[in-house]
Amino acid sequence: MSTQGHTWVRQVKKEDEEEDPLDQLISRSGCAASHYAVQECMAQYQDWRQCQAQVQAFRDCMSEQQARRREELQRRKEQGSAHH
Fold first, then answer.
1. PANTHER family recorded for this chain (predicted)?
2. Residue 38 near residue 54, CB atoms below 8 Å
């Protein structure tokens, strides 16, 4: 009589099945194109100093998005307190 050992198979998620939380955040921000531009530049030059225009564009986009988000939260807060 031979023993077969384990008969179960572990289910492993493929990497492409679940998006990275950082990628999700960037996608929701509307700044994905400028983020990809930074990544492409870094892949090409492998030196962030060569990519300052792309880095600045991404930084500006994210700053604008954060300002819009703060304004939206402030509006919601004011609307919520107006109902009380």
1. CYTOCHROME C OXIDASE ASSEMBLY FACTOR 4 HOMOLOG, MITOCHONDRIAL
2. yes
Q: Please tell me the number of Cα atoms within 13 Å of 64 on its side-chain side.
A: 10
Each residue's pLDDT tens digit, 37-77: 999 999 999 999 999 999 999 999 999 999 999 999 999 99
Report the alpha-carbon distance of residue 33 to residue 47 in Å, rounded.
Answer: 19
- The 3 state secondary structure assigned to the chain is CCCCCCCCCCCCCCHHHCCCHHHHHHHHHCCHHHHHHHHHHHHHHCCHHHHHHHHHHHHHHHHHHHHHHHHHHHHHHHHHHHCC
Tell whether the model's pLDDT for residue 8 goes beyond 60.
no
pTM: 0.68
